[in-house]
Write a structure and sequence with these properties.
By secondary structure, the protein is of the alpha+beta class. The chain has a domain at about 1-45 and about 80-115: Alpha-Beta Plaits (2-Layer Sandwich), CATH 3.30.70. The chain is about 20% helix and about 40% strand. Strands 2-5-1-6 form a four-stranded antiparallel sheet, with helices on one face. A two-stranded antiparallel sheet has the order 3-4.
């Protein structure tokens, strides 16, 4: 019987490494593909925040100092690719006998939300 195993990864490189490891170490793997989530191409933010650039304003006198920070939203084009998140789903079609081995490999390689269907 044929089964399908899917797992989510934080970036495409981790998904490629996991699929390569599955192909090398598990038998009865018929196909392995990646699906990108275009919605998650935005910058990595914490708790529904947004990316801001900080422009410090510095005022110095002999006795005291004043530092002010002005924030403005950063355009998405200026954020380097290393700071972007591209969630990827790996989809592996295999025989039913290989499902447990594939799930253990995907879990070890950092896969989340692992699910399978027969």
């Amino acid at each position: 019987m044929i089964s399908r195993v899917t797992a989510d990864f934080e970036n495409p490189e981790l998904a490629e490494l996991a699929m390569k490891r599955v192909r090398e170490s598990v038998q009865y793997v018929y196909s392995a593909k990646m699906m990108y989530h275009r919605i998650s191409d935005g910058p990595v933010t914490k708790s529904r925040g947004s990316a801001f650039s900080l422009i410090p304003a510095y005022y110095s006198t002999h006795d005291n100092q004043l530092t002010n920070v002005i924030g403005e939203p950063v355009p998405n084009e200026l954020i380097p690719p290393a700071h972007k998140r591209t969630r990827t789903t790996a989809c592996i079609v295999c025989g039913s006998a290989a499902v447990d081995d594939i799930i253990s490999v995907l879990n070890a390689m950092g896969g989340t939300n692992i699910r399978f269907a027969s």
